[in-house]
Amino acid sequence: MRSPSERPALEVRDLETRIDTKLGLIKAVDGVSFSVDHGETLGIVGESGSGKSITALSILRLVPKPAAYIARGQVLLDGEDLLEKSETEMRKVRGKRISMVLQDPQTSLNPVFSIGFQVVEAIGMHADAPRKTLVRRAVEALRRVRVADPERRVDDFPHQMSGGMKQRVVGAIALGSFPSVLIADEPTTALDVTIQAQYLRLLKDIQQETGLSIIFITHDFGVVARMCDKVAVMYAGRVVEYGPVREIFNSPAHPYTKALLNSVPAVEEDVDRLYSIKGQPPAFWDMPEGCRFEPRCDVAMQRCKTEYPNKFARASTGSGAHYADCWALEEPEWIPSRS
Amino acid sequence: MTDSPSPADRVADDNTGRKPGFWRGLRRLPLIPMFVLVVLLIIPALSADWLAPHDPIRGSIPDRLKPPVFFGGTWEFALGTDRLGRDILSRIMHGAKVSLSISIAGILAGGVLGTALGLIAGYFRGLADAIIMRLVDITMALPSILLALVLAVTVGPSFQTIIVVVTFVLWALYARQVRGEVLSIRERDFVARARVAGASDLRIIVRHILPNAANTIIVLATLQVGSVILLEAGLSFLGVGIPRPTPAWGLMVADGRQLIVSAWWIAFFPGLAITLTVFALNLLGDWMRDRLDPRLKEV
Amino acid sequence: MKRNLVIRSLQSLLALLAISVIAFAMSHLTGSPVDAMLPDDAGPEEAARLTKLWGLDRPLYEQYFVFLGNALQGNFGDSIKWQGQTAFGLVLERLPATIQLGGFAIVVSTIIALPVGVLAAVYKDTPFDSAGKLVALLGQAMPNFWLGIVLIWIFAVHLNWLPTSGRGGFSHMVLPAIAMGWFQVAAFMRLTRSAMLEVLDSEYIKLARIKGVPERRVIWVHALKNAAIAPLTYFGVIAGSIFTGSVVIETVFAWPGTGLLAIDAIRGRDFPVIQAVVVTFAGVFIVANLIVDTLYAYLDPRIRYQ
To answer: What pTM does this model have?
Structure first.
């Protein structure tokens, strides 16, 4: 369907990541597919434990060894499958072509190294340049994320900075080598609301300047509405609904997405707790045979208990694919999807 | 990893579907170290007087320097005899009594003193806290074993001297750990409630704080038994611990040292007894720590 | 940071004072030193003369200050056992041997313990980890004097590979260093391992990997510099226990250092020498701890900038 020039920046196909726990092998990521175009932002939404972060780490092949491993699938970066690469080749991808910002700025920076050291190292990993040049580039990187007075700040240590400032430094580290894809794993959850807004604004601006693709992991639909072009809703290791952000908001198809949207908190604080969907997500070592949301679903049918739903795609849409895994969608407007 | 499921911790207790019961609890006990301790330390310590085949102090000159069984000796002196014809096995059994009683008495004394001072420092804060913690710092800054030597020499080696030395070495550790524990316990709700209800300081400390610090104290005690036995053995080896002719393990190693070439068993077996005992005690201590007070790291 | 060091130094000074009080009290606890030093047939006039000469008739606190003043100048009086030598001179003469052996033991145990502790954390729950744990548990269970004797028995007597005792070349240091260092290796290794485990699980290590830092650099630079802080605090304790350990080990191996001197002095009730040894050991121990505090601040910027 697509011509090669419109190839997505990153495409994940049928990714499965398993973790060997004391209770047996679990599929933390179970057949997940999505794609991000150049300059586009994809939101991955779901509750804690839905497999969002493991998905992100799988893309970088940094799942915690030896317990976790990627069992199957493809991670295509500009058409190249990252899962085929050697560890040495992979190191040239990390930080250079795909980068990541972690959730908690308080713990993301190494306390015993100066800010300058950490940014310089990130840039120096992927550039063969004299130290002086690297330091200059590090200062530029810090300026790009709007750290005031970066020439002086490079000698500071993390404990001398505020949380918001630290998260900017993490941003400078992530963006220092101009990657084409940035994975942001709940980068603002630990920040307070005003700082959070500033940070999101900053990411948007940088995206507009550089054409960066962003994968934004969050459990906050408010953030999704502001940041994202597309959304993948994850539940119990699977993407249960996927589509353009406007369609997801205007006509959510999966009961889980609907429930999430209905429970968007009015005040953005401690989001995790404010979701008020009855029941608990299923345990990974005790997955329902059929639809994983069935025990908590209001519209569940007999069939939902025994068979995992097909993917149903919206029949005709203008702005990209929209599909969901739910038996309730077996109507004319929705057709079984091949993917 | 924030997002990854960590089911292992939450449901570890019923992964086989059975309820955690007495037998399951028992199976998780460190049985081998406990067995070693019972056989090597507790049984001999309690019953050396009846079980030991020979007199530990009076030897028979014709039987001197007999090798152990399997090395040309006989079952009569299974681990051989020393220069004075005393049975090594019997002396090791009686030595267990010394090791056990010193470690219990020493840890009791050091633990009680340290716990009491730690409770006072943590509960009352202020001046008492400052003074006690400075004392802790100073004690920890002193090369304690050297002081132990000096004390043993000035006052003379005896059971009591060793207890004083052990107390001196141990109290600061207890005081520091207990104080830290108390600082967090005293901020908890039930302490505030007790205070509002008009309970006296003493009552709050004894009824509310002490029981909550008990795990730390017990774990520390278990972890320290081994080092106390090593300390006592070292002092006895240097001739400033248990006076002769009382059979103490360290003293026996010292006795055998000069004869290591011709009669290795005299020094070897008592040292082996120390090693195995301390090894088992340390395993038990680690297990207790993991079980009762995982926050307490390597001390 | 500077303030911190000043406080620590003052504390050390206090500890040193406490030591001096104990050292002073020591010679008075056993009764008058005059009784200990006079020949049995000396008359009461002789005792009175010596009492006067040594200032023993003055009040205790005065005697203490005299003692302290002298001690500060390195004057602990003449040795009783070794005629014609000053107590402090004897200690100084023996100190290099102790520092040589102790330093060697510290260096060797660090060289062994640090990498093994790091690798045990990296390869957690593998046979390597278990083997390391066994070695550590053994090291913490064996009494060092017995280990020394057994080492002599096996490697010097039976195999005849190394000398049994005394001070000489490198080969003379091997067995005593093992006997002295094994316990330290064990403690150091376990501390390093647990600190590394905690650090390796942290977010900043994850970020380092995300940056594309090679795993080897992640472990030996990013993680180790953090993890080294915990074992380093223990380093002061090690320095101290090497000194006290020297008393035992030097006895076993007849190594002519201060430890052996201390034991000989104690057996000979040579109080000036004992006092000199105790104060010197305490001094070295306290200086070692101050150095560790400084290093600590160097490693951990959170302390440096306090």
So the answer is: 0.79
Helical pair C271-299 and B126-141, crossing angle rounded to 10 deg: 110
Whole-angstrom distance, CA of residue A156 vs CA of residue A153: 5
Average pLDDT of chain A is: 85
Omega before B245 within 30 of 0, i.e. cis: yes
Q: What is the pLDDT of residue A338?
A: 57
Residue C244 near chain B (CB below 8 Å): yes
Instruction: Reduce the DSSP state of residue A323 to 3 states and report it.
Output: strand
pLDDT at A1: 43
The torsion defined by the Cα of A90, A93, A95 and A100, in degrees rounded to 10, comes to -80
Q: Does C292 touch chain B (CB under 8 A)?
A: no
Contact call for A112 and C210, based on CB within 8 A = no
Q: For residue A49, which residues of chain B lie inside 8 Å, CB to CB?
A: 3-5
Q: How many CB pairs under 8 A join A and B?
A: 41
Contacts of C66 (CB under 8 A, 6+ apart): C55, C58
CA distances, C191 to each of C121, C185, C196 (Å): 10, 10, 8
Note whether C212 contacts A: Cβ–Cβ < 8 A: yes
| Collapsed DSSP state (helix, strand, coil) of residue B243 | coil
Coil vs helix vs strand at B231: helix
- Residue B218: CB atoms within 10 Å: 15
CA distance A328 to B2: 33
Q: Evaluate if residue A213 carries a pLDDT over 90.
A: yes
Of the candidates B33, B118, B126, B98, the residue with the CA atom closest to the CA atom of residue B232: B98
Task: Tally C-beta pairs within 8 A across B and C.
Answer: 133
pLDDT digits (tens, 9 = 90+) for B135-194: 887 777 666 667 777 777 777 778 888 888 889 888 988 998 888 888 888 888 888 888
> For residue A17, what pLDDT band results from cuts at 50, 70 and 90?
very high
Q: Are B113 and B167 in contact (CB under 8 A)?
A: yes
A95 three-state secondary structure: coil
Nearest to C17 by CA among C198, C279, C261, C242: C279
Residues of A in contact with C123 (CB under 8 A): none
User: Distance (Å, rounded) from C-alpha C101 to C-alpha C33?
Assistant: 34
**Cα(B126)–Cα(B179) distance, integer angstroms:** 13
Low-confidence ranges of chain C (pLDDT < 50): 306
* DSSP code string of C45-113: HHHHHHHHHTTTTS-HHHHHHHHHHHHHTT---B-SSSTT-BHHHHHHHHHHHHHHHHHHHHHHHHHHH
- Check residues B57 and B110 and name the one with the higher pLDDT: B110
- Interface predicted TM-score of the whole assembly (ipTM), two decimals: 0.84
Go through chain B and tell me how many residues it has.
299
For A215: left if phi > 0, alpha if psi spans -120 to 50, otherwise beta; the answer is beta
- Nearest Cα of chain C lies from the Cα of B255 at a distance, in angstroms, of 11
Kindly determine whether residue B7 and residue A284, on different chains, have CB atoms separated by under 8 Å: yes
Each residue's pLDDT tens digit, C147-157? 999 998 888 88
